[in-house]
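Page 47, continued from p. 46.
Same chain as before, 193 aa.
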Amino acid sequence: MFVFSLISLAVSSATAPGQSSPVPYTAQVYQAPVVRPFEPPSNFGRVTEEGDGGGDTRLRVITAPVSVEAYRRSYEHAPSRADNAYDAGVDNAERTMDARMGPLDGRWRLKDGEGRTLMTLSLMDQGESKPLEGAYRTAGAEAEVGPLTAAERSAGLLVLDLYGGRLALRASGEGWSGTLVQDGRERAVTLVR
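Result:
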């Protein structure tokens, strides 16, 4: 009976004294990815590879330097079916995740009118329904690093707020072009991959 009461106490909604309901959190809670990179089959590791059934699969211990002329075929063993299946699973998971991401996802360079890189931006675009997130790193000896404090986007318009600055960009041929307002100074910039 005591164990049952402890379980029911743990399962019941936890609220602070004097509070009628739990406080809702606004931050996005971490969720595990839907697609796992590799899920081995039930017979994984128990299948004998074709051609490998009769020999010793372990390598000899190297006791002295080996010259290039001592190799007869390849420098490495050919990958097994399990290695190939794992690599294919990882590649497939990466392609699937990339397909779900929006067009702004990835790393970008912000350049001035003379083509010099002012900063790099790393953006996470999970599609139109979710907010655009990211961080920046300024170029130069004293590089600043910080998060984007706000991001607004609409059809062909992108506004990114940085610490101490604001980027207002419009879609152009190669990427985005517009202005960077920082420390009261405005300059023309382009955002490219």
